[in-house]
Amino acid sequence: MSAVPMQAAPQYAPALQPTYLNVQRTIRSWLLTTDHKRIALLYMVSITFFFFVGGVAATLMRLELLTPRAELVTSETYNKLFTIHGVVMLWFFLIPSIPTVLGNFLVPLMIGARDVAFPRLNLASWYLFMVGGAFTLFSIITGGVDTGWTFYTPYSSTYSNGHVVAMAAGIFIAGFGSIATGLNFIVTVHTMRAPGLTWWRLPIFIWSLYTTSIILVLATPVLAITLALMALERIFGVGFFNPAIGGDPLLFQHLFWFYSHPAVYIMILPGMGVVSELIPCFSRRPLFGYKFVAVASVAIGVLGFLVWGHHMFVSSQSIYAGMIFSILSFMVSIPSAIKVFNWTATLYKGSIRFQTPMLYALFFIGLFTIGGLTGLFLACLAIDVHVHDTYFVIAHFHYIMVGGMVMAYLGGIHFWWPKITGRMYPELPAKLAALTVFLGFNLTFFPQFILGYLGMPRRYPVYAPEFQVLNVLSTAGASILAVGYLLPLTYLLWSLRYGRIATPNPWEATGLEWTTHSPPPKDNFETTPLVTAGAYKYDSQAAEAQREVAHV
Amino acid sequence: MSSSPTTPILAHQFEDATQQRDAATIGMWLFIATEILFFGGMFLGYTVYRYTYPQAFAEGSQHTLIWFGGTNAAVLLISSTTMALAVHAASENRRALLVSLLLGTASLGALFLVIKGFEYAHEVKENLLPGSSFHIVAAEPLKAEMFFYIYWLMTGFHALHVAIGVVLILIFAARAFFTNAFVNHDTPVDLLGLYWHFVDIVWVFLFPLLYLVDRHS
Amino acid sequence: MRQLFSFIFPDQASNLAPSVDAIFFALVVLCSVITLLVFVVALFFCVRFRRGSKVDRTPPKGGTLRFEIAWTLIPFFVFCGLFFWAADVYFAMSRPPGGATEIHVVGKQWMWKIQHPDGRREINELHVPVGRPVQLIMTSEDVIHDFFVPAFRAKQDVVPGRYTTEWFTPTKPGRYHLFCSQYCGTNHSTMVGWVYVMEPAEHARWLNQVAVSESLVAEGERHFHSRGCSGCHAPNSQIHAPLLEGIYGKPVPLSDGTIVIADEQYLRDSILLPNKQVAAGYEPIMPTFQGRISEEEVNAIVAYLKHLTDSERSQQ
Fold first, then answer.
1. Which of A96, A171, A181, B163 has the highest Cβ tally under 10 A?
2. Within-domain flag for C272
3. CB contact under 8 A, A380 and C160
């Protein structure tokens, strides 16, 4: 909470003062902007585009899987579709989603700064992202890549016929955009906090993004060199992973998962940060066990670097290595469990409202719990041998990534929509959409747990006929899910013009971002805020008392 | 990019010069951390294969030009010294000295690249470039090819970093000569120095790992 | 009921399946309890403490520490228990018992080539008798594949350039899916087949159905001579090369001072990468056979060398 009193906020008449949106209106002023809020919007538009690219690929895959034979598309096309889906959804939607959109918008606002530490680097990161995206789209349009997003050698380096190098180059370039974003956030959080904003007063969203950024900065370069080595091997015909000159294809997997497992936490930690903001606000209670939630974020980040080998239990790595990675994988689930328990406990004695962001947050808790617990099956060595590379794994990580991260992203977008755009979204369609997404999601992915244990391998356009019923259920769910995702796109665009004008703090939330206008002026705050207390100073009794007064 | 000689440029997002300096310094160290991880992937591969094929690495290493590599190590170490002196000159606002030390560092960097270029040319002529024309007289030619693949890969990425460094140093020298950019504002030079020392240190590791395997015998 | 169960749960057809499924069911119960706990508590709070409900909202007294310690330590111990249980089963799954029937498997885009000890070959089919442990010795000619039999709960990547193994004892006669579960290119999803588990008598009949020209060992012996191995690795050879009778399973001192056990991987590497591990006292003069010899020939020669050891042992 800042020294700028909350009640003072409504005095600012939004129309009188230029906001970051209307301070300049040319296209040029958007494309050359160094304002973190505008860059956030550039990212929002870009990743929404990529989300629907990946979504179209997923839709086609689900339609193909209606029948056990490759009837709608050929196997070759199907293989390209799942590669597009994986690459685009991971590197061009999930990894940038919350950090580059909500993170770029909120990190300076939440810590009371005028901008991130390196605004030009921030803009450069968006351009790197777009150039990387262009390379990836190029490789898709000119024929596609059929390696899967994991690019396992020697298939990717020797046998595949697709445009592997162009796609790897796209991910490589976008990776430097990620590094730039992560570096910016770390420096910003370290050096630009408002006076009085100590580490233990930071919102959990900032803690989460800080940890995410450290992972981005330390893991992404390893992905860069791994993909570069794979591409060089493809171009020159000799290389690290080539068994012909004594190379070890497993080394690729080690290097790849050294990045890609921490990348899973890049994708989920920001979602946990968003939920940690939503739950206290809508239950009017301080976050239960604040310090534990904060430390749990960091613990997840650290342990996340030590568990990559659990992707390789059946790869022929040593069984002793398998055991070490297994026990560490169990350990990394403990901080996640701590978070779930703390969020649930925050509801106790609250004064809970169920606006759309809260619905998303509650769905997140439920789906993340299921996703996290099914992770235990995969950490269990003996069970992983059976379910490895089956639909069980697919279901597990979609529960975390879609059930978790996408829910959190949508919840966050709705929560901060008034701050970002100055307009309220329409509540009723939003609640309907949230319910649709939740139902569609479960129908899509729950049957896949059963398919997985039955033994249906992933990446199979042609499958055994006895798996058909469950696949049809899953496809039915996916069509509901698709509607659920199109709804927010529609009504959020509608609200830009017709939505109710937002007050500076429509949710009566704490946090510095709510003490400035909606939308904020270019430099965020009129005076640098002074912070005198920790985050989440909510009071459910006061909220109830206020409500009674309003009703009398 | 010029400013009055007495006040350093303060970007609008910062409150004061100390904050700006801290931010830039942390940023540079983080960048170096990413570079270490980038090279780390290659060092890991080196470690794995040297452990697996010690004999081939020893034989491959005997085919490298130790005098070229050794001279280059000396060249880079001297250039690190001149860079350190340049950073010092910048902190004392001695512009002429700064410019000449930067030019000296850039020349040494360029000298490194020239020597490396001759070395590469020699190796291409000797068929030591991995690929279809690779040929080596060794007990395990295929594994020796792996050694040379790693040699070209790591020295190649390192040379790329040296080349980027030389260009940056030349830009800095020009700015120091023609503008007041670094007067009372030595942070950028300081950070350039960090980068250059990093490039130097990578070579300090690469030289023994690639040129000195089993040379005692 | 039974039908529904088989609709959502795979057959149990190997000795490994019950022990894997036991952990699975334990985890399902545990995770359901935790999930229900979280859901019920969260729903209860959501209803009871909804805005406007008339309940006491006095903030609870006392710190949060005891809760935090409880929900950190309890999962920790539960997870440790789970780990040891699963690791124990995994350890057994990774260690084939002695005396298992050794069957060679070669994966290539997009088929499974299987060869029995008696030399009999199959493609995309594997016939095994019920009740006898089977060990698969697998390698790949091109990319990484994976030999997955869901009903056996057995799965192992098949990697080019090395041998991997997988074992199981079939317990129930029937026909079971064989899948390639490591993505291997265009027709990955048709790199599938069937494993037939047969009663021993029926299996014996199947084996004798088609006359096999020569056993795997005989084939290996033939290659051993035609490839020129016997020219050097013979007692009266002019060239100083180690004798290979009885070498399998024995420790071999290497020229770099270390000692390795001569297992399948060592024999294979010695044929394809002869200078990787040179036996002490010998010059590294053996030519490499990499690229000149097929995976199946290597398998046959390895089987022959192993047979030499067995026959030597039985003579003693």
1. A181
2. yes
3. no
Chain A neighbors of C7, CB-CB under 8 A: 466, 469
* Average pLDDT value over all residues in chain A: 92
Residues A305, A226: Cα–Cα separation, whole Å: 16
For A363-404, how does the pLDDT look when each residue is reduced to its tens digit (9 = 90+)? 999 999 999 999 999 999 999 999 999 999 999 999 999 999
| Residue B213 C-alpha, separation from nearest chain C C-alpha, in angstroms | 16
* C101 belongs to a structural domain: yes
Are the CB atoms for A466 and C6 separated by under 8 Å?
Answer: no
Domain identity same for C13 and C150: yes
CA distance B100 to B107: 10
Quick: pLDDT tens for A304-319. Answer: 999 999 999 999 888 8
**Chain B residues whose beta carbon lies within 8 Å of the beta carbon of residue A188:** 23
Residue A3 above 50 pLDDT? no
Report the chain C residue with the minimal C-alpha distance to residue B143.
C276
Q: Which chains touch A (3 or more CB pairs under 8 A)?
A: B, C
A1-40 residues touching B, CB cutoff 8 A: none
From chain B residues 63-122, the ones with a CB under 8 A of any chain A CB are none
What local confidence, expressed as pLDDT, does residue B7 receive? Answer: 52
Q: How close is the nearest chain A Cα to the Cα of B91, in Å?
A: 23
Q: Whole-angstrom Cα distance, residue A477 to residue A446?
A: 10
C164 & C229 share domain: no
Picking from C212, C230, C263, the residue at the C-terminal end of a domain is C212
Task: Classify domain A25-551 at the CATH topology level.
Answer: Cytochrome C Oxidase; Chain A (1.20.210)
Count CB neighbours of C264 within 10 A.
Answer: 22
d(CA B203, CA B196): 11
- Output the six-digit token pair for C218: 């005989």
Tell me: do C277 and C297 sit in the same domain: yes
Q: How many domains does chain C have?
A: 2
- The answer to whether residue C248 is domain-embedded is yes
From chain B, pick out residues whose CB is under 8 angstroms from the CB of C290. 142
Assess whether C292 and C177 both reside in one domain: no
List, for chain B, all residue ranges whose pLDDT scores fall below the cut of 50.
1-6
CATH classification of the domain holding C42: 2.60.40.420
Same domain, C239 and C293: yes
User: Domains in chain B, please, with CATH?
Assistant: 36-211 (1.20.120.80)
Contact: B55, C290; criterion CB under 8 Å: no
Domain end, chosen from C179, C212, C245, is at C212
> How far from the centroid of its chain's Cα atoms is residue C248's Cα?
21
Q: Give chain A positions within 8 Å (CB) of C188.
A: 75, 79, 459-460
CA-wise closest residue to C171 among C18, C8, C9, C10: C18
Please name the residues in contact with A514: beta carbons below 8 A apart, sequence gap of 6 or more: A6, A9, A419, A504, A505, A507
Q: Do C27 and A376 touch (CB under 8 A)?
A: yes
In a domain, C235, yes or no: yes
Other CB atoms closer than 10 Å to residue B35's CB: what's the count? 17
Residues C301 and C160 in one domain: no
In a shared domain, residues C260 and C154 = no
Query: Domain spans of chain A?
Result: 25-551
In this prediction, residue C251 has a pLDDT band, given cuts at 50, 70 and 90, of confident
Mark yes or no for CB contact A547/C182 under 8 Å. no
Identify the domain containing residue C158 by its residue range. 1-48+96-212
- The pair of structure tokens assigned to A130 is 């777009």
What tokens appear for B115 in the block?
A: 């020597």
pTM for the full predicted model: 0.90
Q: Give the pLDDT confidence of A328-345 residue by residue, as tens digits.
A: 999 999 999 999 999 999
CATH number, domain at C250? 1.10.760.10
Q: Indicate if C119 and C207 belong to the same structural domain.
A: yes
Taking the C-alpha atoms of residue B161 and residue B195, their distance in angstroms, rounded to an integer, is: 9
Give the pLDDT mean for A226-242.
88
C-alpha span between B128 and A369 (Å, rounded): 56
